[in-house]
Amino acid sequence: MKKYLITIFIGLVAIFICDFLIGTGLEYFYRKTKKSSHLGHITYTLEETNEDVLIFGTSRGHHHYDANMIADSLGLTTYNTGLDGHFIFYQTAALKSVLARYTPKKVVLDFSGTFEYDQSDYDRLATLLPYYDTHPELEDIILMRSYFERYKLISSIYPYNSLILTIMKGNVAKDSKKNLNGYSPINKVYKGTLDSIPVKEYYEVDPNKIESFKEFLKLSKDNDIDIVVVCSPNYYEFKKSYSLELCRDMCKEFEVPFLDYSKDEYYLKHVELFKDRTHMNKQGATRFTQEIIDLLKKS
Amino acid sequence: MNWEPIYALLIFFSTVVTYVCANQIDKETEQKKRKLYLVSSVIINFGILFVFKYYNFITESVFNVLDSAGVRVHFPEFKLLLPVGISFYTFQAVGYTIDVYRKELKHETHFGKYALFVSFFPQLVAGPIERATNLLPQFRKEIKFDYRMAIDGTKLIIWGYFMKVVVADRMAVYTDTIYSNIGGHSAITIIVGTIFFAFQIYCDFGGYSSIAIGCAKIMGFDLMTNFKRPYFAQTPVEFWRRWHISLSTWFKDYVYIPLGGNRVSKTRKYYNLFITFLVSGLWHGANWTFVIWGGVNGIYQIVYSILNIKPSKNVKNVFVYLFNISTNFVLICFSWIFFRANSMSDAITAISRTFTAPGKFFMGDEKGFVFAIIGLVVLLGKDTYDEFLLEQRLKPKKIAKGAWYLGLVMLILLIGVFDGGQFIYFQF
User: Is B402 near chain A, with CB under 8 Å?
Assistant: First the structure.
């Protein structure tokens, strides 16, 4: 037994050393990824933003708001923190880390997704793992992934699990979008037709999502941020959306303006403004951003 | 697969029933009574399994058949959750009763030891389905800590986790994407998705078995080998000697041989083979896709038996060997389509699109795809080494072995899937 325990101990020490060395290397290169890369964009959002106006959202937010147009029109520096596939948990985490450093003047939250339970939303919080040690304000959100997350994070490699190729790409690829301030335009044009899509009219909500959304609104209000929640246009028709109803109700509760473009007739008649059913292309984003600018000017 | 504390009563009940029946079988001298106890044990145990696993499937199938004939019969519907490990411990307990009936084994009078045999935790949930002749004698011995076994067990656990987390769960991301929308993918994508599934299920189940065997080894118990590099098999017959060995041998000993095995006419032998594989398919799940999967494998056995195709013993003839394992792999992959498809219509769509749907290859998440290939290369490297070099005494030095397992742990941390689902065989 003693011999076995010694062998296991030696093995664990070897694992610890390799884990530390590889993890440290990954962290170094992670931090060196270019600002316009996927990982660089996240690091900038969580650690370096200092702009007056911040856009929050998923891929729809990321592709629908031209930060430079807003900056030029309002005379306020702007950054688009939108991140593909990351719904309210990430957005609230991002706002928390921003507020730990400074208070932006205006915030636009592009609402998309649902308040229904979806395990993948929790899985995607892995995006925040590299920041666990340095951002105590993110701990609660990261630990929503699982209770055991704090123990997994003893490993130095674990926060960078499955990221090795992304880190390599982020260090090697050209910094082509560095002047777009987070905005990611799409040049494709949708070839499909205007269809009616079944959208859930009722479902059981995930209380964590509701709480997270409310926290986002509350943090903005408590810090006197001029916040507006927007549902940007899509190219499909639907009867009723429970998610939008919930969003509207919560905005009302916190007295936050909610602008719903999901059934806007103009966009539904212009397929050339879309890349697919849920994402606008550059042409659509330019037009839509102008509308938002006009509204922000009035507010 | 579901776990509720109340389900422990099911295992307990099954243990008590088989213990009492085996005890009576052991005591009785009158053959008629011995048979009565055996039949009682089999009926009660399979009855429980039937209610939980097959009742709704059978009644639904009967309803559909009668409905198509214009007859409407309503069966009461039960919403029962499948208790964890029920298929495994039921087979293990029933196998024990049969062994005692056949006098291949003396009944274990110590209830605690027998209960441990039925519910031994490493293999309770997904096997290997142990034989009493192998496991019970180990419970009777005094167990002393064995350094060599503990080290071997630890290695098996590391390898099992690698198979599950790096290969199976990574490939599952791709195969789930393809098979959830099978009608939208091209032939090449479906082929790659099916090949990935072949390795996914091998690594998922083989990985679990490895972890289970490893855990038992650390405690000083030897469980039976469940997988022996199945994709190096040259024929479907050989494949089933390497794949889920504990289940294959269970069906051979308790279904195929009692049906007459191969000591009967050729026609009867083929019938026995086919029935055994059909039942094996049904064991996997209450769905026609599993039954067809079993049937297809049964047909392979019959065809290879008729054509008298046997594995080439001359492995040095590389071309013949590669041709054989490739042919076998294609056949096995074809059968996996039925196993993986969500429904029979999906399986048919997958097969028809394999021949009729040209188009671009869909890679999905490119990085995930690359990680899956890395995992596959490591897996094939290890299996190739074990298959051809291990017995040739080309054994690496201690430091190289240590580096290998250290590398596996690093790969698990670097590219393993930590959000993966349960083991596939938990659902059976």
Answer: yes
